[in-house]
Amino acid sequence: MIDKTSTNKARALYYGLLSKLLVYSTATDRFAGVDDALAIIGTNPLDDHSGAAAQRLLLVLDTHGTEALTQEYDALFHAFVGKVIRTSASYYDEGIEAGKKLVEVRGFIAKTKIRRNEATFKDNEDTLPFLLSFMHELVELSSAGHKEYDTIQHCLFEQIINPFVDDVIEGLFNHDKSDAYKEVAILLNAFMEFERLYFEVPKLPKKEAKKTKQELADEQEMQRRAANKAKRDAQSSACESGACGM
User: Which of 184, 197, 193 is nearest to 87 (CA)?
Assistant: First the structure.
């Protein structure tokens, strides 16, 4: 059994670190404090893999500075060409952005004093970066004595974060432009496993991703072209065998 009171400080550290690494920002100090948090995690990790990841990520910062993270972040999440990593719960639930999960998250937010700062958060409230920041605030409030936010934390994790976070982790780890952010994926994965233990919520089996309207349209077009080609090939074969009309 996890002592939830004593672990909230560590949980706040992880949520704060991960949100800084994943939230889109143009601020020059967007990664301020990341090195200090990584140093703490590197010496007191959740497991050996995440401890090593924290050390490797800290080495990247020491060697190349935060600009390396900024450039890689843009290539992963905001590239104009190539595959980008989707981070919204609605996308993984329905194959669309700003779907039912966004409405659900806004319902949770309405029960708190926390509101999205549109100057800081450009993406919707059901994106993982915002959810990590939201959870960070909830953990801090709970630690300050506002225990009414404990239930919201549990529900937000179980109903919103847990069903799709593994898809984001997989995309982050396997993306061909991911280098330093592979380490972020390892840290995020280890912490999400801890949170499942904390909330006593099971890891969900992987489900097939919902296809977007464009993907469905492309698939239908490919099927139509394949059917037309098969028809033409059949007619051509019939003519070659002399079965065509004279």
Answer: 184
For residue 15, what are its two tokens?
Answer: 């949520």
DSSP state of 159: I
On the 0-12 / 13-18 / 19+ scale of CB atoms within 10 A, 81 is exposed
Instruction: Tell which CATH classification among 3.40.50.300, 3.40.50.720, 1.10.3480.10, 3.60.21.10 matches the domain 4-210.
Output: 1.10.3480.10
Please, how many CA atoms are within 13 Å of residue 169, restricted to the half-sphere of its CB? 18
**Euclidean distance between CA atoms 138 and 119, whole angstroms:** 20
Which of 82, 63, 43, 42 lies closest to 186 in space, CA to CA? 42
Could you tell me the residue ranges of all domains in the chain? 4-210, 212-246
Amino acid 178: pLDDT: 97
How many Å apart are CA 153 and CA 139, to the nearest integer?
8
Cβ-Cβ contacts under 8 Å for 116 (sequence gap 6 or more) = 109, 125, 130
Separation between Cα atoms, residue 115 and residue 134, nearest integer Å: 9
Residue 245: band (very low, low, confident or very high) from pLDDT cuts 50, 70, 90 = low
H-helix or E-strand containing 105?
A: helix 100-110
pLDDT recorded at residue 246: 47
> What distance in Å separates the CA atoms of residue 154 and residue 237, rounded to the nearest whole number?
64
Q: Is residue 219 very low, low, confident or very high in pLDDT (cuts 50, 70, 90)?
A: low
- The answer to whether 87 and 168 are in contact (CB under 8 A) is yes
3-class SS letters over 38-91: HHHHHHCCCCHHHHHHHHHHHHHHHHHCHHHHHHHHHHHHCCCCCCCCCCEHHH
